[in-house]
Amino acid sequence: MKKPKYIFVVGGVMSGVGKGVTTSSIAYLLEARGFRVAPIKIDPYLNVDAGTMNPVEHGEVFVLRSGLECDQDMGNYERFLGRDLSNVNYMTGGMVYKTVIDRERALGYGGRCVEPVPHIPEEIIQRIKRAGEDVNAEVIITEIGGTLGEYQSMMFIEAARLLEIDNPGDVLFVLVSYLPVPHNLGEMKTKPTQYAVRTMNSYGVQPDIIIARGEFPLDQKRKEKIAASSGMKSEQVISAPDVESIYDVPLNFEKDRLGDTVLKLLKLKAKKSPDLREWKRFVGKVHDPKSTAKIAVVGKYFATGSFTLSDSYISVIEAAKYAAYHLGMKPELTWVDAEEFERDPKQVAKLSKYDGIIVPGGFGSRGVEGVITAIKFAREKKIPYLGLCYGMQLMVVEFARHVAGLIGANTIEVDKRTPHPVIAIMEEQREKVANGNYGGSMRLGDYPAKLRRGTLAYAAYRTDLIHERHRHRYEVNPAYIQKLTKAGLVFSGVSPDGRLMEIAELRASKHPFMLGSQFHPEFTARPLFPNPLFFAFMKTVKKCL
Ligand code: GLN
């Protein structure tokens, strides 16, 4: 194998300014030039994976095909690159430290003293190389989460520095920085970025490219100022102003010749001239919708403001967008707090102004009765409904209570003593929960489902067997399948052994589109290839507009 090139993307000044989108976009532009690229996301924290973190505080937990629970940026990578990634593409501080400590316990260091340096950076480097070898990558692009100067990211930058010493000229540092425009000054300030460069320098590394994020484009004068103070040419400073859609970013980068600059600095020659036509066609649809679809996303929401919520449900939002854009619509998503319907059930009537209702995944009992009230409303008023995981389970509960006549039906996640546990805990899960074994222990990742012909699900996927990603502990209780089916609920997707119900829906004669999936279809939605269930849902929304 030829030696790969390495790109490290780090963040300066503050977090949340788009390292993930920058990394995805650079990877996309390199792949468009014919290179095999391995993207890696590093989260320096000590959690071994992202599965145990609260999505309202830390953003969505994205699930890979393999079942690994990781950071939402992995979703960005998969969406921009249009392909599935694997465990080698994700690394946390916890994984690295755990491997080193486990190895020490197994006498893997032959009696030597095991120290943070060099053993932690060594393990990091091995993992980076493994991700490259996995796909025979020519370029490995690694995003180091967090912001420069944080103690926890130091080991990762040290690993990058060591790689550069061993591979001179083959390692590139991209600094994603932020240029504020204080209101009282009305002027873009470059100083924080200069400090970020100095912080990098103090770690022994130097940026080769600066992505200058800000509310506005960077003028030539400031480009030159940053370049001069950082020891680089002005073409190495890329202007990255706020954009309407993140999908504009690779096209803006291309305009600023970022792809070519990266290749030049890495001494690579493009294998083909980039063909961005399909991407541009998609972005064209993003900017030119013919109609608007008003969608209510009903769930338990804390008073966090929509900013955090859009981070917590990013895959759901993006999946809804792709389906809508491809149908010439713009989705307008509104977060509706289900607890409102618990306080005053009459409030549910306000859902009638929406063209469709989505109930996303969730855990615990908070807001559940309100969600069930909303689902009942969607069913009775024939508003297109899509339920994702918890949204499917609660759709089954609602149906059991109000159509199948199973009074007091519930999921045992909410009510252990319900007379009708229509959603119950999976056998293999019971023990795990009893032992307090919560990390990475749900039913996770890809599982197959057989689809029944003549159903909404089949019409959406047009195939007999599908694979989608899961993240749940509970499932439709087999003891109730017959009763529910008899009452008219259709299980249109079932695990190949017939045990697990994967999709539930109502007949077309009863409702234009009422469907819930035990899996999370949002994780496989891609800009150029919307997920079939979201697409079918949006198609009905469009028909009903
Ligand atoms: N709480 C439910 C379960 O564990 C649903 C999970 C989800 O929506 N991801 O089965």
Keywords:
alpha/beta, 9-stranded mixed beta sheet, 38% helix, Rossmann fold, 545 residues, 21% strand, 2 domains, globular
Could you explain how this protein is built, in words?
The chain is an alpha/beta fold and 545 residues long. It folds into 2 domains: 5-38 and 71-80 and 128-280, 3-Layer(aba) Sandwich (Rossmann fold), CATH 3.40.50; 289-544, Class I glutamine amidotransferase (GATase) domain (Rossmann fold). The chain contains 20 helices and 21 strands. The strands form 4 sheets. The protein has a 9-stranded mixed sheet with strand order 11-10-12-13-21-20-19-16-17, sandwiched between helices. Strand 7 (171-179), helix 7 and strand 8 form a beta-alpha-beta unit. The longest helix is centred in the N-terminal third of the chain and has 19 residues, at 116-134. The protein is globular and about 75 Å long. The N and C termini lie far apart (55 Å). The structure holds glutamine.
Give a brief rundown of this model.
The chain has 545 residues and is α/β, with parallel strands linked by helices.
Instruction: Classify the beta-strand content into a percent band.
Output: 15-25%
Largest sheet: 9 strands, mixed
The total tally of domains equals 2
The shape is: globular
Question: Secondary structure elements and their pairing?
Answer:
Elements (H helix, E strand, L loop, with lengths): L4 E7 L7 H14 L4 E7 L11 H4 L2 E3 L5 E3 L1 H9 L8 E3 H13 L10 H19 L4 E6 L9 H13 L4 E9 L11 H12 L6 E6 L5 H11 L6 E5 L7 H7 L2 H8 L11 H11 L3 E9 L6 H7 L1 H13 L2 E9 L1 H5 L12 E4 L8 H13 L4 E4 L1 H13 L7 E2 L9 E5 L1 H8 L8 E9 L4 H6 L3 E8 L1 E3 L4 H6 L3 E5 L6 E5 L8 E4 L14 H13 L1
Parallel strand pairs: 1-6, 1-7, 2-5, 2-6, 7-8, 8-9, 10-11, 10-12, 12-13, 13-21, 14-15
Antiparallel strand pairs: 3-4, 15-18, 16-17, 16-19, 19-20, 20-21
Helix pairs in contact: 1-3, 1-9, 4-5, 5-6, 13-20, 15-16
Bound molecules: glutamine.
The site of glutamine has 11 residues, from α16 and β17.
